[in-house]
Write a structure and sequence with these properties.
By secondary structure, the chain is mainly alpha-helical. The chain contains 3 helices and no strands. The relative contact order is 0.13.
């Protein structure tokens, strides 16, 4: 079981201090803004893309519900994972889940029977990945 080290346990040469909000703009605020903007655009356009691929409004609503369930039920395991393994491992797991979601969504074109289950799995993994 790995644990995260506190800033007090690290040598002074490894501790980074910022003295103003302006110093935090590029290392913290810009990547956060870009990540949230990308997620917002994706979550806005994805249901429209699903509808354009031939699914009905009911299917798009069900997929959005599955995404919400993944986000709701992924919070507790994600919090436990972050506590036990730290932020770097948590970010790795989140990226891995995003990749699995994209791989599942790319399988939609393989078979007509598996289109909807693949999208269901993709939306579930996307919801879980958002919470991690």
């Amino acid at each position: 079981m790995a644990s995260t080290a506190d800033a007090d346990d690290r040598p002074e040469s490894q501790v980074v201090e910022y003295h103003s909000l302006r110093e935090l703009a590029f290392p913290l605020y810009l990547p956060t803004l870009l990540a949230h903007a990308t997620r917002s655009v994706t979550l806005t356009v994805l249901p429209l893309h699903v509808f354009a691929t031939g699914f009905s409004y009911d299917d798009v609503g069900l997929l959005s519900t599955i995404y919400g369930l993944g986000a709701a039920f992924g919070n507790i395991p994600a919090g436990a994972w972050a506590t036990l393994h730290g932020p770097r491992s948590t970010l790795f797991v989140s990226c891995w889940l995003f990749g699995l979601s994209a791989a599942s969504a790319s399988l939609v074109g393989v078979s007509g029977k598996l289109r909807f289950p693949c999208f269901c799995l993709a939306f579930l993994l996307l919801g879980i990945a958002e919470t991690v």
